[in-house]
Amino acid sequence: MKICVIGAGNGGQALAAYLALRGFDVALYNRSAWRIAPIVKTNKIKVEGEINATAEISFATTDIVQAIRDRQLLMVVVPAFAHRDIVKKIAPLLEDGQVVVLNPGRTAGALEFYNTLKEENVRKNVVIAEAQTFVFASRASNPGVVRIFRIKNAVPVAALPSRKNRELEKTLLKVMPEFEIAPSTLYTSFNNIGAVFHPATIILNTGWVESTFGKFEFYFEGISQSVAKVLEAIDRERCEVAKKFGIEPMTAVQWLAYAYDVRGSNLYDAIHNNEGYRGIQAPTSLENRYILEDVPTSLVPISAFGQLAGVRTPVIDSIIQLSSLIMEIDFFKEGRNFEKLHLQGKTIEQIKHIMEEGEV
After folding, report:
1. In this structure, are 73 and 210 located in the same domain?
2. Which residues are catalytic?
C-alpha cells in the first residue's frame, strides 16, 4: 500500500518512519522546506526511544501534487487548526478510493473536513476519518531525528459517515493494527483526551513556562495534585456532555489504562504512574499547540455542545477565557463554534445524525 503522511512535525516524522519500518511505501509532505531538508536529501529518518532504528521512506517533498498522487492512504498529521487549509489544498487532487485519516481530529475534525469538501464541490468517493488521539507520545529533536516515548496500545478511529467504517477498517487496519474502529465520530470527538490534559496544564503553568522556557517535565512536574483536580473537573464536564449525545465516555483515568496500561486511584496517580510520559518536556513558549490547537478545536466545540445540551461547563469555559486573554485571541469566536461547524439551530438529534452520517 502506498501511503502519504501530510505534515512533518514530530508526529508526522515519527509516523512516516514507523510505517516505513513496517515495509510500506511512504511519502512525506511538508509545507515548509527547512523542516524536511535533511530527509529530502537522504530519505532517512532516525527513530529513538521505544524504537531505535533508521527508517528509509520513498521520498519527502513540499509538492503536494507529487505527495498524494496514487497514494491510497493519506495520514494527516498537522495541528487541527490547519485541517481546513489542508482540505482546501488537497481537495482538487483527491482520487476515488483514497482514505484520509486525521491524526487526531480533536473534536468534530472530520465534520469540519467533510463540510469543507462540500464547499469545494468535491465529488470523489473518499473516506474521511478521525482518530481520537495520536498513536505516539513523541518529540522531534532535530529534522530527521525523532524520539517515540511510547506507542499507545489502542486508538479509536471512525469514519464520517459511519457507513464507511468498513472501508476504513479494510485499509487502515492492514497498516496499523493499533487502531480500533469506533462506531462513529461522535465517539472519537467526545473522547478527545487532549482537551483534558493539555490546555489547563499549560495555562496553570504559564509562569513556569515563561520563566524557564519550558525546562520542566510537562506531565510529571507540570501536573501537581492541585492541577490534576482542575483536569478532573474538565474531564467530568466533557463526560457529561458526551452522555447527552448518547456516548458512553471513557474517563481520563480509564483512558490511561486503555492506552498505556497504567492505573491509579485518581488522575494524578494515573498520570504519574505512566512511564510513557517520562522525559516529555513542556513547550518552550505559550505559542504552542496545547493552547493554539487544543483550545479552539477541542474545548470550544465541547463547550458549544454542552450549551446546546444544557450541561454547564464552567471550568472548560474559564480555561478558554484565560487562554483568550493571554494569547489575545477570542477563541470562542475563532474556534470550532457552531457557526464554523454549520450546526447553528440544530437539535441534539440532528447533530447526532450529522456527526454519524454527514447530512441532515
Report:
1. no
2. 198, 294
Distances in whole angstroms, Cα of residue 145 to Cα of each of 4, 62, 78, 284: 19, 19, 18, 19
Q: Both 32 and 100 in a single domain? A: yes
Domain that holds residue 111: 2-190
CB 130 within 8 A of CB 110: yes
Phi, psi of 93 (to 5 degrees): -105, -10
Q: Cα separation of 179 and 259, whole Å?
A: 11
Domain boundary among 190, 212, 237: 190
How many domains, the chain? 2
- Phi and psi at residue 315, to the nearest 5°: -75, -45
Helix (H) or strand (E) holding 208: helix 206-212
| 360 residues of the chain, pLDDT tens digit each | 999 999 999 999 999 999 999 999 999 999 999 999 999 999 999 999 999 999 999 999 999 999 999 999 999 999 999 999 999 999 999 999 999 999 999 999 999 999 999 999 999 999 999 999 999 999 887 889 999 999 999 999 999 999 999 999 999 999 999 999 999 999 999 999 999 999 999 999 999 999 999 999 999 999 999 999 999 999 999 999 999 999 999 999 999 999 999 999 999 999 999 999 999 999 999 999 999 999 999 999 999 999 999 999 999 999 999 999 999 999 999 999 999 999 999 999 999 999 888 875
Distance CA 127, CA 246 (A): 24
Domain boundary among 143, 170, 190: 190
Closest CA to 192 of 50, 68, 355, 67: 355
Does 360 reside within a domain? no
What CATH number should be reported for the domain holding residue 306?
1.10.1040.10
CATH number (domain holding residue 163):
3.40.50.720
Closest CA to 323 of 199, 224, 189: 199
DSSP states of 105-130 = --SSHHHHHHHHHHHTT--S--EEEE
